[in-house]
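Protocol step 4 of 5: obtain the predicted structure for the target chain.
Materials: sequence only (see below). No template structures provided, no constraints applied. The aim of this step is simply to have a reference model before the mutagenesis design in step 5. Sequence pasted as it appears in the construct record:
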Amino acid sequence: MSSARSKYFSHLDGIVKTLPHKPGVYQFFDDKNKIIYVGKAKDLKKRVSSYFVKIHSISGKVQMLVRKIADIRFIVVSTEQDALLLENNLIKKYRPRYNVALKDDKTFPWICIKNEPFPRIFPTRSLVRDGSEYFGPYANVRLMHTLLDLIRQLFPLRNCHLNLSEKNIRTGKFKVCLEYHIGNCKAPCAGLQSLEEYNQSVQAIRSIIKGNVSVVARQLKELMMEYATRQEFEKAHLVKEKYLALEKYQSKSTVVNPAINDVDVFSIASDVTTAYVNFMKVMNGAIIQVHTIEIQKKLDEPDEELLPIAITEIRERFESLSPEVIVPFDPGYTVANISFTVPKIGDKKKLLELSERNVRYFQLEKEKQKELVDPEHRSSRIMETMMKDLRMTTLPEHIECFDNSNIQGNFPVAAMVCFKKAKPDKGEYRHFNIKTVEGPNDYASMEEVIYRRYKRLLEESKPLPQLLIVDGGKGQLSAAMNSLKILKLTGSMTVIGIAKKLEEIYYPNDPVPMYLDKKSETLRLIQQMRDEAHRFGITHHRKRREKGTVKSILTDIPGIGYSTAQQLLWKFKSVKQIREASLEELQTIVGKAKGEVVFNYFASGQAD
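Step 4 output (structure tokens):
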């Protein structure tokens, strides 16, 4: 254990040294003997030791956790799968302060096949352990009701609560009801349907609920052909209607190749504080379950750590035994009787992309809901993301971005745009006319404007930005740092450069660029600021260029100033058309006297 930390953790040194190199679960306790964190490990000794030796590599939140550890206990297990399950159970039982929180308080419905003679089939949110079969839970309630409607359409079943024992039916205790007369039930209560026939329908329903629609469709088709062969055409027609209804349901629910059977699909999307995990169960190419959970981060956990937690929790909750799990990346652990697939092409890749779209839509919807409650939520999230991505120690509430603009060295200008709380503050935008640089020299121009901007802020005692962005690579960044060094502002703010070609992020004195995810909010905001600075600079440069062109030709006319020259250009668009205009046309624009001066000037040939 490092000497830098021994004053905090000397009492834990003996525990850490004696940990075994075995898979298991570790628990951190505080000074009140309360569990504050539960974690799993392939190797307990290596994993727990990492909290105490990697002082520079762990985040501030993890350091805060480590400083609260008063005791460490561990449980050795046989496999990584056992560690995952035990970790999940302990987190749910103790809800430790520093573990992720799975936000999902809903009670989802199940489809129940009741354990009774002539079983009823109905939706329920209460599981009674009486031998009944339960299928689900169904996060998509509409899907469950669609399935139940199909079942009722295909198979007339009873929905009464009568005790249909053999004795009660034989003695004629019950009479047929309205459900029988309207065709919703075949009246097994009155002995008009046998238990064998009823159970065949229940077996077919089990197959449909499990996603094995093709099996039932084949059976119906065979029955239809059998009736037709026996010339029982009315019965054949009724079976045909059921077959077509099942085919229609199957065609609507199938999204990929029906050969993809009994597969779980998981995807994840996250920001600084929250992660979202989408789950889809696929049977015979049809999605029969879809669910998304929200995970509240506590220790800046990466996706690679969160996804296994979510997979374990969701598969346990939905009682999934699918042998194949499709994931966006290798989860980093093995489980008996389960194979993890990271598809690159084909139908499985399409399934993963569908799951990823679902999780992104869910994330966007959640963000919209949070913004309705807290309008500043989006800004705070973006700033926290930038702070993490750019390795900053403070929130970038105030950001300034600089861009140079010149054409072959003529009329060189620079622009600075200011964003506060991730939003443009146009009142703080600034233009700079380059004063000390001759010719096209981006580095020297950047050095001048950075010096002028921050010298002025210091003189006026105005706050400095937390983040300074320069449009350009290592050269422009070095120029900016030269000025900050002269002003003794080195280290007072985070400074980065963004190179256009590959959108590389450069840091001072670091030759290796950083590459941000092309879809990240951090890169999008940096690009937005860079493009805004470029637009703002080009607009100013164009005005200077126009002013310079006007001054060089029209304002050479005695008695004609810039304002008059601009009026003429707005009307005639070019000096050539002004030269060709009639006296009356010129006087209509700038008056009798000035119109005559301009007309006589060009007519005399003085402009040639």
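Step 4 remarks: Residues 521-553 form the longest helix (33 residues). Confidence is low (pLDDT under 50) at residues 1-8.
Proceed to step 5.
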